[in-house]
Predict the 3D structure of the following.
Amino acid sequence: MYGGQQLNKEMKQFFIFVKKECLHIWRDRRTLFILIWMPVVQIVLYGFALTNEVKNSKIAIFDQSRDQATMAISNEIAASRYFNLVKNVYSYEQIGATFRQGKIRMAVVFPRGFRYDLLHSNHAQIQLIADASDPNTANTLTNYATAIINDYQQSLNNNADLPYTIKTQLRMLYNPELKGAYNFVPGVMALVLMLVCAMMTSISIVKEKEMGTMEVILVSPLKPFRIIIAKTVPYLLVSMLNIASILLLSVYALDVPIVGSLWLLLGESVLFTITSLSVGILISNGAKTQQTAMFTSMMSLFLPTLLFSGFLFPVENMPIPLQVISNVVPSKWYYIIVKSVMIKGLGFSAVWKETLILVAMTLTLLSISIYKFKIRLA
Amino acid sequence: MAKDKVITANNLTKKFGAFTAVDAISFDVEKGEIFGFLGANGAGKTTAMRMLCGLSRPSSGQATVAGFDVYKQTELIKKNIGYMSQKFSLYEDLTIRENIRFYGGIYGLSDNRIKEKTEELVRQLHLEGQEKSLVRSLPIGWKQKLAFSIAIVHEPAIVFLDEPTGGVDPITRREFWGLIYEASARGITIFVTTHYMDEAEYCNRVSIMVDGRIDALDSPANLMKNNAADSMDEVFLHLARKAVRSAD
């Protein structure tokens, strides 16, 4: 029948086209990899590894009474899976120093004569001091601690005639109003700088390769090293502009102050910009097309910065393998530096380790890039 | 009359692992000569040219370009040669004037000289009034001529042209070769690779590479006579038929 044959032909035509499309996808292994593996990786990461849930947060206890009650509460807190008691401190100065070193997220302070106050006036206080540069974590931690203290209070009241009250006094360091901006401004700075520098450098260098003008430049008297530097200079300037605008907006529109030295902040930002540019150069060495360059930048820079720098998900809550990965991500160290200098007002002595790490990373990246570049010409 | 030799090559070889891309080629190019470097795709032309430009280190053999050694004096070579790539080596998103400024600057021309050269070029190519247009807007024939003129903006001893006339109609190609003749008359040596055999007839001498070796080196007239051929096409077919390697 004519009608049936025509339909058959059209179906065949249609399926041949579908088959061709499937072949395209199958032959593009890289995209296929992403399409299939990405969802798996995402679920694993978000489901198991990355979490806003706070566990094993490092805390310290300053117990000025050392009596039955304080020991009981301390034991409860230390035993909780949310807390990891790393230090017993013996003075307020020590507390300050420990916070400055970034070693703890929260400190529990028991005043002198805690049990005495409880027994004689049915009323006592505990002070909770939290590092609020990450306001969400600070909130969560103080809530957990308060809950534990309330439990203890409850257990006392079960066997008593008069109700006992233990009041918790909260002190949020660095960010008394618990503004989210205090946490995300440093994060955005890290993200923006890393992305702009690395992506644009890799694209610009690869574009030159694609356009065919790279060959001509290599034949010219201009030394390869200088070509690379010249390519990164505009992005250095753009990044300076970005830093300036972010800082201006943060201070005047978001009310995020720059507590520490502005010069130190700018200096560290320039260092991080150079680190990011080095990553861009490394990517551009390998990439043959702009598409590859952009893709590699996204995968190896944007995503890791977003996930592992610590600004969305606290690093200490990740499983160990991910924590190791986060150490390799330059943005993580810059994020710590910016928080320390901008929000906590600390000086170079507090961030020299992180600075050194960034310098080492930059030198390593540049050496590899130059080495690879030279090999290509041999 | 003995002329200066601007390029000398003696058993120049380039190996990539076990693969010999350029196999002990030897030839000379005289000053002011238009030297055609022919061969099929994959014969080794580009690799050989990269060695002469100082972009690639030879595996063995000797060569000098503009009197400088390709092993030890690549920086000096680069200062004294011009280069036009297959893709014309112009920045499409820059204006004509900006392109001239860039390349002139890289080759160390003074600001005044760049200005002079810009005016000269614009006049020569009949581009008056268009100095500030983006190169992107030029027709391909004009881009080609501009690219060549810029390649010799610093009046180098030799200019290397890598397949310069791809994708252009015969009339435009003829005009392009007109520019080449002018440059040659000024004493600039032209080293051009091409696989358009009819262009070979415009050259003073021609070498044909097959499988990494030079199988023929002579003037087009002699080659045609010795191979009983009426055109360079036939000469090429005759020689390249023996080739083992095909395009990479």
Observations:
- Chain B touches chain A through 24 residues (CB under 8 Å).
- The longest helix of chain B spans residues 170-185.
- Chain B has a mean pLDDT of 88.
